[in-house]
Amino acid sequence: MKLTEEHEQFRSSVRRLVDEEINPFIDEWEAAGIFPAHELFAKLGSIGALGLEYDAQFGGGDADHGFTFVLAEELGRCDAAGVPMAIAVQTSMATPALARYGSEELKRTWLEPTLRGEMVCSIAVSEPDAGSDVAGISTHATLDGDDYVINGRKMWITNGTQADWICLLARTDPLSKPGDYHGMSLIVVPTSSPGFSVGRKIEKMGNRCSDTAELVFDNVRVPVSNVIGEPGRGFQQQMAQFQDERLVGAYLAVSGARRALHRTKEYLQQRSAFGKPLLANQALQYRLAELYADVDTIDGLLRFAAQRYSEGIDVTREASVAKLKVGRLVREVADACVQFHGGMGYAEEMWVARYFRDARLVSIGGGADEVMLRIISMMEGMGKK
After folding, report:
1. pLDDT at 130 > cutoff 90
2. Looking at the structure, do residues 191 and 269 belong to the same domain, yes or no?
3. pLDDT (tens digit, 9 = 90+) per residue, 355-381?
4. Final residue belonging to a domain, choices 65, 95, 115
5. Are 131 and 210 contained in the same domain?
6. Nearest to 130 by CA among 98, 178, 164
7. Span 227-238, pLDDT tens digits
8. Is 190 found in the same domain as 127?
């Protein structure tokens, strides 16, 4: 993917925002277990970072995919992975289907203020008994006149305690049951709706500054007009959203891994043992070199995928391969960084411990490694679709 001067100017704006508005507050937000999403998203909206590729008619930037790539690269420099993940939910996980398939009324009401950062949104797919197996969801929306009445629970919802609206995947066909791929719809659900509640905020091993919640839908009533696109096409729409999520997640992870290696290299240059810098040890040099090479390899795949995506080519395979490989790589990088920092790498006061905890999610969120392997195996004709 070729980046222009305009892309680099945008990079400078995002980098400045990360350095001034995010990183100085990470420790505070990590300790609190939440960051001020409305406040931060308004700042991102002011530089046009929340709707880069969306239609300018609805507050987007009409930009090419290179801007999304640059945004993710710079957000990957954050001192904690929770904030970039929460931003990515707003830009690339909860809004793509609305931007592509939503009615003009839905876009005016929900997408426009979201792209300005005036609203926070969440994507609600996973459930207590249905994670990577999307076909296993049981949350249902029953037609009652001009409304749907929604009942069910959603789990692991990023931005869940702060969201103004939810992009909800639910079963709208009364004949559709867990295990079926048909009969689902994506629905815009305002969190102000009677019957909606946050069941609990989930305390996590990593990504602590990002609030994650279990959501409860108890006879929540929304207009039928809140369905995104054609009713019954929610599963297909969500599969498309997953590709955006996995690509952007991989962009973030590769950038974060490269920064972690840079920071570890600097530490090894400054730290001495047995009368010489630790980086003078050839074993450490070679291990870092190997990890840099792996980062470069996946970065190359992602740039290739980004170019194909910008050309309108299906990148399911590239996104799945990158998601699988980067999830495994960041675990290696995180482990090496902890090891090379010695005892300090095990101390909570150092960035390394946080990176180690945060990195573990990459192989789970947005589809576990096993789901990526299933997709790849099916694309190779080795499994049943």
Report:
1. no
2. no
3. 999 999 999 999 999 999 999 999 999
4. 115
5. yes
6. 178
7. 999 999 999 999
8. yes
- Contact in structure between 184 and 169 (CB atoms under 8 Å): yes
Residue 385 reports pLDDT greater than 60:
no
How many C-beta neighbours within 10 Å does residue 241 have? Answer: 23
Q: Is the pTM of this model over 0.90?
A: yes
Residues contacting residue 258 through CB under 8 Å, at least 6 positions apart: 76, 292, 295, 299
d(CA 191, CA 38) in angstroms, rounded, equals 15
Q: Partners of 20 in the beta sheet?
A: none
Do strands 140-144 and 184-190 pair parallel, antiparallel, or not at all (unpaired)? unpaired
d(CA 207, CA 360): 10
Would you say residue 369 lies in a domain?
yes
Cα 368 from chain centroid? 13
Rounded Cα–Cα distance for residues 263 and 174 (Å): 54
Residue 385 belongs to a domain:
no
Q: Which of 115, 137, 164 is the last residue of a domain?
A: 115
CATH number at residue 95: 1.10.540.10
Torsion of CA 126, 128, 129, 130, to 10 degrees: 10
The number of distinct structural domains making up the chain is 3
CA separation for the pair 44, 33 (Å, rounded)? 21
Domain assignment present for residue 104? The answer is yes
Catalytic sites, residue numbers: 245
To 10 degrees, what angle do helices 65-75 and 282-310 make? 150
Residue type, 13: S
Residue 356 and residue 348 in contact, taking contact as beta carbons nearer than 8 Å:
no
Terminal Cα distance for the chain, rounded: 32
Residues 131 and 102 grouped into a single domain: no
Nearest to 153 by CA among 196, 210, 95: 196
Helix or strand or coil: residue 375? helix
**Where are the alpha helices (H) located in the chain, listed in sequence order?**
5-17, 26-32, 37-46, 65-75, 82-88, 96-101, 104-106, 112-115, 234-270, 282-310, 316-341, 351-359, 369-379
State the DSSP code for 107.
Answer: I
Q: Are residues 278 and 251 both part of a single domain? A: yes
Name every residue whose Cβ is closer than 8 Å to that of residue 343 and which is 6 or more positions away in sequence: none
